Amino acid sequence: MITRKDVEHVALLGRLELSEEEKQVYTEQLANILEHASVLNELDTKDVPPLTHVLPLQNVFREDIVGEHLEPETVLARAPEREARYFRVPRLV
Amino acid sequence: MDLCYTPAHELSRLLREKTISAAELAEAVFGRIDAVDEKVRAYLLLMREEATAQARAVDRALAAGEELPPLAGIPVGIKDNLCINGFETTCASKILKGFVPPYDATVIESLKQQRAVFTGKTNMDEFAMGSSTENSGFFPTANPWDLERVPGGSSGGSAAAVAAGEAVMALGSDTGGSIRQPAAFCGVVGLKPTYGRVSRYGLVAFASSLDQIGPITRDVRDCALLMGVIAGHDPKDSTSVPQGVPDYTSALVADIKGFRIGVPREYTGEGIAPEVRAVFDQAIEVLTGLGATVEETSLPHTKYALPAYYLIAPAEASSNLARYDGVEYGLREPAEDVVASYKKTRSRGFGPEVKRRIMLGTYALSAGYYEAYYLKALKIRTLIKRDFDAAFERFDLLLSPTAPTPAFKIGEKVADPLAMYLSDICTLAVNLASLPALSVPGGFAGHLPVGIQFIGPPFAEERLLRAAYAFEQETGWVSKRPAL
To answer: I need a surface site. Which of B43, B86, B198, B292 has the fewest CB within 10 A?
Structure first.
């Protein structure tokens, strides 16, 4: 059963800041959804391989050559904050 | 003649014959937008100036006697999770407010080569997470058939725009039913192509193993036309399949004699509204009358599709949405350190459903739960695919209602996520199995349209189009339009 503590831990992992009310609501709703998902345990899947996609594709490679790319200035122009040719962020440690 | 309700293939002929001009057509569609979008609210952004210029250029080319591609001058609405160079793309999320992509999605490039005219960016559930367009971070869209009801979602703006005559055709994306369910709710045609058939370069990612781009159109011929334009291999999307693109319009033969159609009983029983069941039963009669054999079949793992989907899709979403950190683009909330800034930015920028799915997905992927939830769901996915494989050994196509109910009231399901998730029960297994499926108007429940869904094996889009075309020619439901 998912607890409020789990919700706080998962919020930190997902980099979300939740209000007290949100923590309460998500604890209930996630518990509900996960309970609904527990029906999956009815099935024995010990010998069933996982499926990520059905395409007949694996390891799509290309030549290691420089292709078309965006100009650094085009990309930096969209940054909320920049300095010279860098993205500027608040302090890390 | 009402240009706004004339299909693209017809408009294309009129443009070539110079009975109408592209500028006149664009003016008619924007006139319609001016008249009804206040009520429908299908658009987040209008591209009127650009569209007018594009239309005039098409007229000049036609006047000069140039041979133009079939979609030249056709007004197309674009879901707001597809990038158009130089125009704001928000995915209906506050976290992307003001983001202007510096490149075109590949499907947009293809439409530009056709010299199609973009009407604007259509509303959607935030990051395509939802089934009603109520999760838009900006405003909900109304169903043109009943303004108190939802248009479906997440491509609700695109479906509503086509239904309301505010676009001739539109692009949507489908991760669990997001093209087909709104198409059904709005009485238009919607196709979710096989996974890998259409390049997703420039589509903002939600759940990468499930997402596909597809057409939302007024009739089946338009669907085939638009599908032919967007399909194909793209080196920029390594999940696109290097396989030739057929001429989808040549599949439009109104003859399905001898088609073997299976109706999975899990899609017609519990949870399906009686009025939907009634329309569906009539559709079966029509198809039988056309010479198809329709038989009941079973996809035994169907009840596990919804819980498996609601672990896989949020898990992939939680990973894809980790990129919204307020560093390179989009919203940034300042804070004393970088982690605090991430948390503030994301909490302020994402709406409740997106946060719920990030929470759910992060939980399903976190240490100690990965095997119990995510891996388990991927194994169930194998079982679901095997069900379809077995069914397609006996049947050419499968048939089901597109959605369990007609369009529901705005506000009816917002407080209960599970009830909202249930509106995708007929569509999401198709995404888990990477199959193509098409929703075509099947009839009406009172004043509300009801869709039926054809499901095919991988790369059987032509077969879907042919069956839907035969059904459409026989029933003519697509010619009905809402009294707006």
So the answer is: B86
pTM: predicted TM-score of the whole model, two decimal places: 0.97
* Chain B partners within 8 Å of A40 (Cβ): 304, 307-308, 376-377, 380
Q: Domain B3-256+407-479 belongs to what topology?
A: Amidase signature (AS) enzymes (3.90.1300)
Does residue A33 sit within a domain? yes
In a domain, A23, yes or no: yes
Of the candidates B157, B154, B179, the residue with the CA atom closest to the CA atom of residue B167: B157
Q: Kindly state the DSSP code that residue B86 receives in the 8-state scheme.
A: T
Residues 27-46 of A with CB under 8 A from B: 29-30, 32-34, 36-37, 39-41, 43, 45
Tell me the ipTM for this assembly: 0.95
pLDDT tens by residue, B319-342: 999 999 999 999 999 999 999 999
Q: How many domains does chain A have?
A: 1
* A6 domain-assigned: yes
* Distance (Å, whole) CA A20 – CA A38: 27
- Tally of helices (H runs) and strands (E runs) in chain B: 15, 11
- How does B356-387 read in b/e, with b if 16+ C-beta sit within 10 Å? bbbbbbbbbbbeebeebbbbbbbbbbbbbbbb
DSSP bridge pairs for B263 = B296
